[in-house]
Amino acid sequence: MRIALVPATAGDYEFARETYYATMRWIIERLFGWNQAEQDASFGSQFRVDDARLIMVDGQRAGWIQTQHGESSVTLHQFYVVPPL
């Protein structure tokens, strides 16, 4: 098994959004109720393609992370893995 992190591109936005929804929808629904327009806007305001990396497993997208680099630190903002089918 080969695992790699590769920079995300604008074309990966939909994959990142759908992975986020697949992993987080259950808890968002329970806590706040699901409003698609609100979730689309919220995700759009949080996802930063320049800070995102795809998690690749054997050449296939398996998830994504988003980090922010400081002077002497790296902060993990988001980390999502595609749920099993």
Give the secondary structure arrangement, pairings included.
Elements: E1 3-7, H1 13-32, H2 36-46, E2 52-57, E3 60-69, E4 74-81
Antiparallel strand pairs: 1-2, 2-3, 3-4
Detailed description of the structure:
The protein has 85 residues and is α+β, with helices and mostly antiparallel strands. The chain has a single domain (3-81), classed as Gcn5-related N-acetyltransferase (GNAT) (Aminopeptidase). Helices cover 36% and strands 34% of the residues. It contains two helices and four strands. The protein has helices at residues 13-32, 36-46, and strands at 3-7, 52-57, 60-69, 74-81. Strands 1-2-3-4 form a four-stranded antiparallel beta sheet. Strand 3 and strand 4 form a beta hairpin. The two termini are 19 Å apart. The mean pLDDT is 95.
